[in-house]
Protein 1
Amino acid sequence: MNKIKVSPARKLFCVLNGILITGIMLICLVPILNVLAQSFSSSHAIVSNQVKLLPVEFTTSAYSYVMKNAEFWQAVWVSFQRVLIGVPLNMILTVLAAYPLSKSSRVFPARKYYSAYFIFLMIFNGGLIPTYYVVSRLQLIDTIWALILPCGVPIFNVILVMNFFRGIPESLEESAMLEGASQWKILWNIYLPLSKPSIATVTLFSLINHWNSWFDGLIYSNFTDNYPLQSYLQTLVVDIQSLMETGDTEQIVAALSVNDTNLKAAQIFISIIPLMLIYPFCQKYFTTGLTLGSVKE
Amino acid sequence: MSRAKSIKRPYHVRKKRQRVFHLMLFFPVLFLFVFNYLPIFGLVMAFQDFQPGLGFLNSRWVGLENFRTLYYLPDFLPALRNTLLIALGKIIGNIVVPLSFALLLNEVKNKFFKKTVQTATYLPYFLSWVVLSGILINFLSQGNTGNDAGLLNQVLLSLGIVKEPVNFLGDKNIFPWTMILSDVWKNFGYNAIVYLAALTGIDPGLYEAASIDGAGRWKQTIHVTLPGIAPIITLMTVLSIGNILNAGFDQIFNMYSASVYSTGDIVDTLVYRLGLINQQYSLSAAVGFFKSVVSGILIVVSYKLADKFAGYRVF
């Protein structure tokens, strides 16, 4: 590239822009770093309000306390079960729906009825109470299945994968069929290997969705033993809130001085760890995943 | 895809292939039927005096009685108004902020810096509102004695922007703004992806031509960049119409309290309190029915508009 003369105004803009963007980045990180610092600080330092972005009087006591908390680990276990069963189920159903729907209506004339069946659900839903009623009539309350089955078919993911499948040349399928391959074989040996980015994207969507869901755990469980991690955390967050509502300052101060802040912070951060582990993949695939949705014939 | 390329297969082969397709769709369709369609049929309870013990068949039909009760319910219209205001604020914020951010970030040439910024700004998007509420309740706290305020209030106080700690979550006039801004805070990094992708798609030749014509950076932004990404801006705006009744249950449920019900209570939180806390199934289902119908109409309208203006089709 030729050397282009950069005007002073442009230089100034670049510097200011860099500062502004750094500021924006900090706005995203500061609240999170603040709580992270608290999770490693002593309760004394927190109560006297010294903790900003770095731990004060560094201690891991909050974490070791959490390690011994059986309720917390029970919730982690429920969440793991949920992910281990829920994500594969999501993926199987997504692919099974996306493959036939990706066929043109010439090959699969009934496609238009099926897609109407799916589209209607993007527009209309039964809402909280009737869904709750169905789940309870099926006797799923207080079982892991209440957290897995109702969200078995993520329609958004179906559309994403379907659009990706559509981008795969039909000639590949035609030649495989000439070789006598069945549709299952074609799906498994041609479509899935070619769709790795979109499959990875929706797997991550499904994983994050299962890990982050909390409301279903809250309403479909009568016993806190059945709470997944996020629902368990939610009850912790609300605890503080209800104290704020009563406005009983003594209670709040008492709650805070028993190390409640750093305890909560520690549990929040442990719950984030699995997400942090997959975060690099998220970044890689979510960008592609988002633009995938718009792939059209 | 051209039709001419296809090979005409014997009838029985095509039939067999279709049978496999029906088979594949069986389980997804079954799941959706049980967990999505049955609840839609269950919405008849909105027109009944539904008693769980009696079921749908034996509960008394009351016609539109529940909707009338709803209209006179003191909580409903304020909740509807709050929903509209908060959702509108979020829709605007979630377009303007990511767009501006993408424009600024697009001017950065240093790849490493760009990547770092993106990594940091996506982060809140991946965390649940439970986790973020835990973090924000702490960060935004007003404090009780004056010196134990959250970090944001400490900063504002020390910069002299405010005299007293601000009650971000407990003051009913501030609460809706807190919801809108924290939602934008969570999502802007992620929402900017779409705009950044569109920005990289603009033909560099256009910029060259513009600069030869004597357009400076600012003029190029106005005359090349913005028209270049106008379709995607239109699309995002149109698609967000369907969200006008979604003020964000997860967020508000985890951060609101009785002191801000008058401005912070939304349709979804009302449904929850009516239905699952007060056990008024029919009334709650009526609210849900209302919301679903209005949102449904808006979604259809927005998809039609998206198709018309941006050629965007979901299926």
Note: Residues 1-5 of chain B have pLDDT under 50 and may be disordered.
Protein 2
Amino acid sequence: MKRLLYFIAAVALIGGAVGYYLWNKPHENMETAKTDLAIQANVLFDEYNADETAANAKYLDKTIAVTGKVKESSTAEDGTAKVNLDTGSDFGVLCELDPLSKHDRTTFTEGETVTFKGICTGLNFDVQLTRCVEVK
Amino acid sequence: MRIILLSIMLLLGAAHVSAQKYFTRDAKVKFFSDASLEKIEAVNKSGTGILDVSTGQMEWKVLIKGFLFEKALMQEHFNENYMESSKYPDASFKGSIANLNEVNLGKDGRYKATVKGKMKIHGVEKDLEATGTITVKQGSIAIHSDFTVACSDFNIKIEAAKVANIANEIKVTLDATLQPLKK
């Protein structure tokens, strides 16, 4: 009987611990996150503009490394830094830097070639990537 | 000579047309669910907005997977169980300023505006009316609005077991500053 009580207590404890862990599960660490694929900014942008549904099937929610030339680098009053990568069009690949990661730098020079790793969230004029970190 | 004049006129005309549109890719969309057991908040800072100052028409769009939550698990459930964001990757609003006679988008000032249009969330389109303020200042247009959307209006199902955790009425805040659209 005692043994059964111990067993129930142990199960409850493990269950509680698993629940607690899941509840507090941290966001993925973007610096160590595995890159699903690497692509040039203009190729990604062109694929999205040719067929958004097909591009979403390929890239949406994937961790991708995008390389391109900096068109615009900006930091908002609240500290949110964004870099728009040139695609040769009016719109680009907009990378929003990860608020949870440490960044060596958050401003970038127009024209320099950079690679960002981030999670693709889809097409909204620009192709958007969230939680980006620079890849060197 | 005539061709040059004509080209100049066309160019000026084009510049005039594009100057009537204001755009942002930095619109901040926040939402807040205030249920009895739990408060949930998420923000997306990369919403887009386009406003035609001559007609008062506007369009907003935000990508669902770009909403960041404090807790990873909530973000996962939001995307997978409620918004089905792989199937419906964005939410959008198309409408226009209903009281354009009281809002002078060409003159610096702070105006109260009512916007009417169609909101599309989770693949479902609904009429929506929202009020807010429009502040015109030195060539930029700042827009702030608070409004409420009901999950049930957009076919977003909250299981009976989660009713105490997730509110049906979601408070949404929009903050954006639009600049003349450069081409």
Note: Residues 79 and 85 of chain B are 5 Å apart (CA to CA).
